[in-house]
Amino acid sequence: MTPELQSRILADSRDRVGWLRARARGITATDVANLTSDKAITRVADQKLMGSRFSGNSYTDHGRRREPEIAAWVAATHGIQPSSALFHAVVERRHLATPDGVGLDAHGRLRLAEIKTTNKPFRSIPRTYLRQVWWQQHVTGAERTLFVWEEHRDFQPVHDEPKSMWIDRDEREIGQLVRLATALIDELYHRTTGNARPVAPEAPAPVPVSNRERLRERDIFRALALSD
């Protein structure tokens, strides 16, 4: 890991409380995975504000158990070390990601790893996972990610080794995700400040508010840790 990237670490998932708190302050790869289009912004904002009812199941438990073993395989075969760090982007500190692995290639270029377990064979990588990968690349600045998956049957690995493939950075896809993430931040801001969300460019400018009122709104928004 480069010193520059290390300087952008906000939290570590091994401190789960601190990690969850830091994640609540921005837009994560998990949030972006569900941003399929503009129509999804309202639903994702609901999840961000009210939390998800999903707390895990036997499949997610299996994934957590297997991830260290798969990460060790990635480190041994590709030199990408396991990572539990939460990073923020260079320009927009509210853009956050926790890749499963971080490393440098022989030329000093940043490489990431993303690990999944599945009980179904992948014909192609699901778009949900691709959005996570592209977002992680956006946040960290990486050009490539090793996507690794282990298929299991009745929670027993099907193959001797996981399968993997490289995913290259896609600026067009990243640009779309950044646009949707910006709209999501706007939606969260307007919900938490009580202001109506602007719906058209020709909408009249908001009535100026006092500095005291502006500070009050900012404090409210800081409860979400998504403040400007």
Q: Output mean pLDDT.
A: 85
Unreliable stretches? 203-210, 213-228
What share of residues are in beta strands?
A: 15-25%
Structural class: alpha+beta
Q: Helix-strand pattern, N to C? A: HEHHHHEEEEEHEEEHH
Alpha-carbon distance between the two ends: 29 Å
What would you report as the Rg, rounded to the nearest angstrom?
A: 19 Å
- Count up the helices: 8
Largest sheet entry: 6 strands, mixed
Percent in helix: 40-55%
Q: How many runs of DSSP E, i.e. beta strands?
A: 9
Question: What best-fitting shape do the alpha-carbon axes yield?
Answer: globular
What does this 3D model show about the protein?
The chain is α+β, with helices and mostly antiparallel strands and 228 residues long. The chain has helices at residues 3-6, 16-23, 29-33, 41-50, 58-78, 127-140, 171-193, 211-222, and strands at residues 9-12, 81-82, 85-88, 96-97, 101-104, 110-118, 144-153, 156-157, 163-168. Strands 2, 5, 6, 7, 8 and 9 form a six-stranded mixed beta sheet that branches. A three-stranded antiparallel beta sheet has the order 1-3-4. Helix 6 (127-140) crosses helix 7. The longest helix has 23 residues, at 171-193. Residues 19-143 form the YqaJ viral recombinase domain. It comes from Microbacterium stercoris. This is YqaJ viral recombinase family protein. Pfam families: YqaJ (PF09588).
